[in-house]
Amino acid sequence: MIRKLKIQHIWLSAMFLLVSAIPGVGWTETVNYELTIAQKKVTISGTTAEGMTLNGSIPGPTLRFKEGDTARIQVHNRMSVATSIHWHGLLVPPNMDGVPYVSFPPIQPGATFTYEFPIRQSGTYWYHSHSNLQEQSGVYGSIVIEPQHGDRRADSDHVILLSDWTTEDPHSVLRSLKRGSEWYALDKGSSQSILGAAIVGKLGDYFVRELQRMPAMDIADVAYDYFLANGQPETNIKATGGETVRLRIINGSATTYFHLEYAGGPMKIIAADGLDVQPIAQQRFLISVAETYDVLVKIPQNGAYEFRATAQDASGYASVWLGGGQRYPAPDIPQPNLYQNVSRGNQAPIWALTPNGTMGMPDDKIVSGKFDQPGMMGMQGMSMTQGLDDTASSVSMSMPSKKEPAPDRHEMAGAIMNKTPEMDTMKKTGHGTPDMPSAQHQKRKGKKYAKDFRFLAADVSSRKDLAADGMDPRRPWAPYAKLRALEPTSFETDKPIREIRLTLDGDMERYVWFLNNKALSESDVIRIRAG
Ligand SMILES: [Cu+2]
């Protein structure tokens, strides 16, 4: 009898241990959502266009969960075309990832698909259609996951979902891009000419670029009608003076990078892509497509202060006013000086004309597709950082429209926070300071020059205030180099390291993209071995 009791006791303890070891078990809750995707006419600032809505609106609803919950989301397709929803950044089983033809068959017109998966993380994420160009048409929304044990860092918590909006059919946008014309550049005033280069004193850079047979540089390829925050070019968030507000900023745009700034003071970044980071204060920083940042801002005692997301090409912006009363706008961001060549110091490889030059390995190896060279790093005595740096540089040079910073070397976002000698020079040369709200504001609309036939009206040289990306602290790169994880993330040192080279390249005229000299459509899987 005693013996039996003891066994029972051990059995129960084992059960208890097992149950507490599985996160979520014991307090798991199934959270249900229904999303209906439909084709609908959408009016933004008085302009109506064909859109795709989630539960009747753009963006779709914010899906809220708590870590440990089970998500059960029914997606109804009320459109005439197949669709899908992908949960960006969520750790889900492969068949719930929502990538059509890869993880599941697309959701056919009239059909319903039920996603069900455990919520194994917390933070700010988003979801979007993974079919054709539906994301550009409006099929996206935000995901907020509370941590298991709560978070008391802010008095209130708001999502700011940024996006870009064109009244043009996205397929016609893609056709224009593939045609390689200057249509959008003329439309938004980023076209270039030899005369314009002379006006801004960059004739040298102009000729170098022409010699490289490179098309005129641009920051963004599409001219948008509007940039949106939570579906509107301008919106309000209720906030009280003295409050600390957590803004969950999501870049749900199709192609636009944004400079973010809050007129009420610096933003403290506390999380990036859903993961908590060591907090850093930033006055202005760049958010790339599909990224999320959580920031804390302090609301000043009186007034409405603008949170502004300016498209990187400075063709327009979205505004969110925090608080009420007198309005304090965020400052304008200077237009990009597209005539200025990006520094070529450590980017020499990309200017070479052979694969050998661009990829740093013999041509015959590249031709035969032997990119994967285990142990190459050791042979060349390259450090991990150098490798990363070079990769980042070649990405930024071969695709100027999607610029990634080379960590450390070009990163200048911090300069804006602490006044530097360079900023004094800037003042002397007549540039404004970043913290001075200017009286004249950029128009919110992206397109504005297409109907203006004045000589050079659409040329970069006719813009008043120009600044080069990464070289002028008023146009900083993304803050990656400054972000630090809360826990160590480096590789275990006793594991063998295998380097796989991926060279991203593109033909900007034809708008086709390459991985290791092969068109994206021809690229194969990358095989890796366990361990
Ligand atoms: Cu995504």
Description:
The chain is built from twelve helices and 25 strands. The protein is an alpha+beta fold. It folds into three domains: 30-146, Cupredoxins -  blue copper proteins (Immunoglobulin-like, Sandwich), CATH 2.60.40; 152-342 and 407-485, Cupredoxins -  blue copper proteins (Immunoglobulin-like); 345-399 and 501-531, no CATH class. The strands form six sheets. The chain has a six-stranded mixed beta sheet with strand order 10-9-12-17-14-15, with no helix packed on it. The longest helix is centred in the first third of the chain and has 20 residues, at 2-21. Copper (II) ion is lined by residues 86, 88, 128, 290. Copper (II) ion binds at residues 86, 88, 128, 290.
What would the keywords be for this entry?
single chain, 531 residues, alpha+beta, Immunoglobulin-like, 3 domains, 6-stranded mixed β-sheet, 27% strand, disordered N terminus, binds copper (II) ion
CATH class of the largest domain: Mainly Beta
Q: Separation of termini?
A: 49 Å
CATH homologous superfamily caption of the largest domain: Cupredoxins -  blue copper proteins
Uncertain segments of ≥5 residues (pLDDT<50)?
A: 1-8, 15-21, 343-357, 373-444
